[in-house]
C-alpha cells in the first residue's frame, strides 16, 4: 500500500533553516511527483512546490521560490524539503503528498510540525 | 492565482441529514476540481476527484457535481464519522489552490 512517512517535529529560531523528509513506499517512486503543502493553525492548506521524483525537476510557488528547495534520493525513495530564513509565520504543519500535474493529491504524509520561535 | 471560495464556512447538521457544500472558482477550471476531508490533527484525505469521481474506498453517500466555476459536494445521509472539515482544491493552473474550508459540526 502507498505510504508517505515524514520526519519528526522541529523547533527552530527565526533565520534558521529546516529540512523535512518524506519516505515513499508501495508504488513506483519515479512515476509520480511529490508535492509539499503546508497548513498554518486554523488556515487552509497552501501549496509550496513539487518535485518530479523521476527527473528531479522542480516547480515552486512564487511565494516561496527564493527560500525553498526540494530534492529527492531515488536510492532511498525519499524526498526532502528545505526552507531557509525561517520566520515566525512559517510555523505550520508541513505535508508531503503524491500527485501528478493537474491531478489531485491522492496520498498524504502524516505531517511534520515546524515551530519557529525565538 | 485562482481563488477558491466555499460556502458555508461552517454548518451544523444531524446524523442522517443530507448536506451540500458549495465551492466557487474565480475563473473556469475545467474538470480540475477535487474535494478533501480533514479530521482534527490529521492530514487531508481525497474524497472526490475531477468533479465527480469517487476515490477508491470512499463511501457512495459522497458525491460531487458542478461545471465551469461552480461545484458542490453532497453527503446524502450524514454519518457520525463525517463530521470534519472539507476543502475543495483546483489543479487547473499552478499554483494549486484550496478553498477556505467548511467545518461540518454535529447539531
Primary descriptors:
heterodimer, A: 118 residues, mainly beta, 4-stranded antiparallel sheet, globular, B: 107 residues, 7-stranded mixed sheet
Describe what this molecule looks like in 3D.
- The complex is a heterodimer of chains A (118) and B (107).
- Chain A is mostly beta strands.
- Chain A has no helices and eleven strands.
- Chain A has strands spanning 3-6, 10-12, 18-25, 33-39, 46-52, 58-60, 68-73, 78-83, 92-99, 107-108, 112-116.
- In chain A, strands 2, 4, 5, 6, 9, 10 and 11 form a seven-stranded mixed beta sheet that branches.
- Chain A is globular.
- Chain B is mainly β and 107 residues long.
- Chain B is 0% helix and 50% strand.
- In chain B, the strands form two sheets. In chain B, strands 2, 4, 5, 6, 9, 10 and 11 form a seven-stranded mixed beta sheet that branches. In chain B, strands 1-3-8-7 form a four-stranded antiparallel beta sheet, with no helix packed on it.
Reconstruct the topology from this structure.
The complex is a heterodimer of chains A (118) and B (107).
Chain A: E1 3-6, E2 10-12, E3 18-25, E4 33-39, E5 46-52, E6 58-60, E7 68-73, E8 78-83, E9 92-99, E10 107-108, E11 112-116
Parallel strand pairs in A: 2-11
Antiparallel strand pairs in A: 1-3, 3-8, 4-5, 4-9, 5-6, 7-8, 9-10, 9-11
Chain B: E1 4-7, E2 10-13, E3 19-25, E4 33-38, E5 45-49, E6 53-54, E7 62-67, E8 70-75, E9 85-90, E10 97-98, E11 102-106
Parallel strand pairs in B: 2-11
Antiparallel strand pairs in B: 1-3, 3-8, 4-5, 4-9, 5-6, 7-8, 9-10, 9-11
Short description:
With 118 residues, chain A is mostly beta strands. Chain A is built from no helices and eleven strands. The termini of chain A are far apart.
Number of helices of chain B: 0
Radius of gyration of chain A: 13 Å
End-to-end distance of chain B: 36 Å
Largest sheet: number of strands, sense, barrel closure of chain A: 7 strands, mixed
Helix-strand sequence of chain B: EEEEEEEEEEE
Strand proportion of chain A, as a percent range, falls in over 45%
Please name the two chains that share the biggest interface, counting residues whose Cβ lies under 8 Å from a Cβ on the partner chain: A-B, 22 and 23 residues
Alpha-carbon distance between the two ends of chain A: 40 Å
Amino acid at each position: 500500500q502507498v505510504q508517505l512517512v515524514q520526519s519528526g517535529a522541529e523547533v527552530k529560531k527565526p533565520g534558521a533553516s529546516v529540512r523535512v523528509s518524506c519516505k515513499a513506499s508501495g508504488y513506483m517512486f519515479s512515476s509520480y511527483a511529490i508535492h509539499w503543502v503546508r497548513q498554518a493553525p486554523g488556515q487552509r492548506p497552501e501549496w509550496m512546490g513539487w518535485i518530479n521524483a523521476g527527473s528531479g525537476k522542480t516547480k515552486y510557488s512564487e511565494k516561496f521560490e527564493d527560500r525553498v528547495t526540494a530534492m529527492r534520493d531515488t536510492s532511498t525513495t525519499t524526498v526532502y524539503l528545505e526552507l531557509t530564513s525561517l520566520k515566525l509565520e512559517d510555523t505550520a504543519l508541513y505535508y508531503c503528498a503524491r500527485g501528478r500535474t493537474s491531478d489531485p493529491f491522492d496520498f498524504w504524509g502524516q505531517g511534520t510540525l515546524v515551530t519557529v520561535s525565538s | 492565482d485562482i481563488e477558491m471560495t466555499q460556502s458555508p464556512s461552517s454548518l451544523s447538521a444531524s446524523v442522517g441529514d443530507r448536506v451540500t457544500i458549495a465551492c466557487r472558482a474565480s475563473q473556469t477550471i475545467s474538470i480540475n476540481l477535487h474535494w478533501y476531508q480533514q479530521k482534527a490533527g490529521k492530514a487531508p484525505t481525497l474524497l472526490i476527484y475531477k468533479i465527480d469521481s469517487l476515490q477508491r474506498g470512499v463511501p457512495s453517500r459522497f458525491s460531487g457535481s458542478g461545471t465551469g466555476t461552480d461545484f458542490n459536494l453532497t453527503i446524502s445521509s450524514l454519518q457520525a464519522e463525517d463530521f470534519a472539515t472539507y476543502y475543495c482544491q483546483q489543479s487547473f493552473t499552478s499554483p494549486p489552490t484550496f478553498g477556505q474550508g467548511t467545518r461540518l459540526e454535529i447539531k
